[in-house]
Amino acid sequence: KAMAAPVLVRVGGSSLPGGFWAAARVWLERPQVANRRLCGAAVEAEGPVALGEGAAGAGRLLLVWREAARGPLPPPLRPWGSAELHALLRELLPRGRPRAAPARELAVQDVYNGTVTFLPLEENSEGKYCIKKSNIYQIQLTHVKDEEWSVSIVAPFPEDWFSDGIAYPKLAWLENELLPKLAKWSVEQKPSEFKNTLSLLSVAKYSKVYQDLKEKYREMVKVWPEVTDPEKFVYEDVAIAAYLLILWEEERKEKELTKKQSFVDLGCGNGLLVHILNNEGHSGRGLDVRRRKIWDMYGPETRLEESVIMPGDSHLFPDTDWLIGNHSDELTPWIPVIAARSSNSCRYFVLPCCFFDFHGKYSRRQSKKTQYREYLDFVTQVGFVCGFHVEEDCLRIPSTKRVCLIGKNRTYPPSEWAVIDKQITQYINDHRTCADIGCDRRVGFNLNDHSDGVCREAGSELPENEADTAGTIWMPGFQPREKLEQIRNCASLPRDFVDDVVLKVANLLLNATPQKSCPNMHGGNMNSWNQG
User: Fold this and answer.
1) Cα 498 from chain centroid?
2) Residue 128: what pLDDT?
3) 3-class state of residue 90 by DSSP
4) Across the strands, what pairs with 10?
5) Highest CATH level, class, for 203-435
6) Running DSSP on this structure, what letter comes out for residue 312?
7) What is the per-residue pLDDT across 37-85, written as a single tens digit (0 to 9) for each?
8) What is the CA radius of gyration of the chain?
9) 260, 262, 469, 483: which sits with the fewest CB atoms below 10 Å from its CB?
10) Is the whole model's pTM more than 0.85, yes or no?
11) Segments in the chain below pLDDT 50
12) CB count in 10 Å sphere of residue 441
């Protein structure tokens, strides 16, 4: 019995059937984009499988497939249409607490027949997987005529369907929510500028760590003393902490390290990320030009320092394993440089947000990319120049700027460091755009000026903290953030003054006397209006 009428899809060119398989891949690998009660899917195994006695596969996938291939598919499912199929064993991961048990499925793609069949799995008392027939369903692509196709979902036993409200919503949800999305994705699939979310980590492991941390630090939302949105900032830092904890755990396994990694968070802001990482056993500290009220709430175990960071020889961290740049603004492109020059083993993690070059606001160099993509490519290139293998991933955080860049491994042996260091210096000098308009070497920028490429005079006075170390600064004239955050709107003006100005302007407008006549729409009587 078909659950719903097929959704017709009409598209020119060659979008289908290729777009259908891309859409199916989204539902297979990232079901959370449609089903918000899932946090993702963990693909346990996948590969080609064959019908008949010669069925081949690997490990658990082979065992499950042999069970699935024993008999024909129940109607109205289309039978397997070719001898070679592609199977994927996945685990659906529920979101939230208390955590529901994950659900396992075997999904079988039949390109020849235009189907993806989903076979839910149950574990019996002997520890073997068997198919839960009540929740079998199949996504079908059908060529109607010319450029017209249809996408449909069918279930052979709709009257027995069991909905747990999480991994298996009601059949009506598949009909009204999933089916239209699949049809839409089939014709709108475009190559993304970015990697899939959490492409470098185990989604299952991330989900568990994130939920544990969220539960542990949820009280921070209630006592947040800053003016910023507590839910956004608390859960964003919890998510970043979960990512780093798993990244570092995997690194310890890979390199057989016994001690947890140390870190320095450059431009740590509210300090919550440092607080969480310290609490989870990682030694480290956070530096920021401006102290925040919330710092006093963390206690002495959380190391936060009010300090101006000037990229130079006096701000290296030779004993630190990782440098973190979480929305580090003007320090973002410098973090790979600082990591490279701190030691041969220092690594970095940056989450770029605002666009800064080495000397000031980042100026776009091409219009074919989005500004965000172009800036990410720039920071990635900085990492390559500094001798890092740079990896990119997309975090699961409540922000439009979710792409992180990670420099874990070097591209050169330690003996070649002098060559790399010279390469870094040359690259920084080549990217001083102020030189293009005739500025002297000692240039800087003003973070309070939102125009691009505004240079200071060569003889301008250096800040006191910079003058002490001018000989060691890599970019003379570099201007860090100001300690006092300047307010650029009327928020700090006395309320009575603002009300008085508004009233005077309103009275001037209302009392304006010049009148102007104009014909109405139909060319009849002249209408008067107050042009004030």
Assistant:
1) 41
2) 81
3) strand
4) 148
5) alpha beta
6) B
7) 999 999 999 998 888 655 555 578 888 888 888 888 999 999 988 777 9
8) 30
9) 483
10) no
11) 1-2, 434-471
12) 12
